Amino acid sequence: MAIRENPSLMREVIEEMDHMVRIMDSEHKVIYMNKKMREEFGYTLGHICYSLMGRTEKCEHCVTKETMETGKPEMKNVPIGDKYYNVIASPVNVENGETYSIELLHDITDKKKIEDELLQHYEKLKADIEFAKHIQNRALPIDGMYWDALEINSVYDPSEDLGGDLFDVIRMNEREFLIYIADVSGHGITSSLLTIFLRQQVRGCIGERRVDLNEILDTLQRSYNELVADKEQYLTILFCLYKQEKKEATFINAGHNCLPVILKSTGELKEIEVKGLPVCALMKKVSHKEVTVPVEIGDRIILYTDGITEASSEENQPYDVERVIQTLRENFTLEGKALARKVVDEAEGFAKKPAADDMALIIAKLI
After folding, report:
1. For residues 186 and 183, what is the distance between their CA atoms, to the nearest angstrom?
2. What are the Cα distances from residue 269, in Å, to 29, 127, 242, 249, 299?
3. Which domains does the chain have, with CATH numbers?
4. Which residue among 189, 198, 215, 348 has its CA within the 20 to 30 Å range from the CA of 206?
């Protein structure tokens, strides 16, 4: 109330404000500038508002015009010279019916510089992630026939740009073929890098000499320990060695909690009970049990990750293994990629929300 009754005090308060203040009339001419504004831009009373910005015509987004038309405050950031300013305009209507616009300007040059640097870092990181995503996708086997022994079909739906699931198919020798699926804990850059590490380690074990599955896991465990990875980080991997001549499939499991499935052409389905401990920094050397089962031409070996079984409904009910098995049984006549896609689509439809974990499934049909 005291300021209202003392216009000179009100003017003095505005004069000493840390923000720059100016007032424009209805023709956009400057009729007042406070001390901070005059020190920054000089004395420009009577000038058109946009001349302050070195322009000869109205701004494309004129906050003065908009605030007078709408009767509401308007804001924008504008470059003036080599600086950036935040401009807030508010309408002022006086008793005689005249309308004015009062603007507050604040120097945000340092803030804008930081924002631009962060944006540059973000764009670079985004490009790096896109490249990493491309590399990760290229590391996966494409669908198709392999060595007149296997027909591979797969689906991989990562929950983020970079996933932590991996699968591969490798020719061990003329009559033996390795199929595996792996799941690295977590998501993002760290997990995706570990999938590439895993792929290279497994492929590096394959050579002219015969290498058994336990030896591959031992090598992987030693290499993982040398990474000095976070003790909370781990990976699971499920191997299947298909011996074409013997018509056998040998499984070995390092902590993968989704058991392998063999689906017969008749629709008969069998889960292979094989379990073991994961690869992690807490382990030094672990012996894993191998399980060998007979197989026939036309059988489909199915490996998948727990992103499918752990997909949860709105009531927080998991999709679980039983639903996976039921979907496989009910749709065993689907050929090629259709069966893999059906399982993943059913899990995603059950959840009715974005996946919380990567979903991967590979089907190897024996031919």
Report:
1. 9
2. 83, 44, 18, 15, 10
3. 7-109 (3.30.450.20), 140-366 (3.60.40.10)
4. 189
H or E, element range at 135: helix 109-138
Residue pair 340/140 in contact by the 8 Å Cβ criterion: no
Q: Are 141 and 202 in contact (CB under 8 A)?
A: no
Q: What torsion do the CA atoms of 338, 339, 344, 348 make, to the nearest 10 degrees?
A: 70
Contacts of 136 (CB under 8 A, 6+ apart): 162, 163, 192, 195, 196
pLDDT beyond 70 at 230 = no
Q: Distances from the Cα of 247 to the Cαs of 144, 211, 293, 366, in angstroms? A: 21, 19, 9, 10
In sequence order, what are the residues at sequence separation of 6 or more whose Cβ sits closer than 8 angstroms to the Cβ of residue 348?
A: 157, 311, 355, 359
Inter-residue contact 258 to 309 (CB < 8 Å): yes
Digit-coded pLDDT (tens) for 278-314:
888 776 777 788 999 999 999 999 999 998 998 888 7
Report the pLDDT value the prediction gives residue 3, as an integer from 0 to 100.
47
Two structure tokens written together for 313: 């409904």
Task: Kindly give, in sequence order, each residue whose CB lies less than 8 Å from that of residue 4, ignoring residues fewer than 6 positions away.
Answer: 10
Cα separation, 21 vs 158, in Å, equals: 52
State the Cα–Cα distance between residues 2 and 305, nearest whole angstrom.
Answer: 73
pTM for the model stands at 0.71
- Left if phi > 0, otherwise alpha if psi is -120 to 50, otherwise beta: which for 320? left
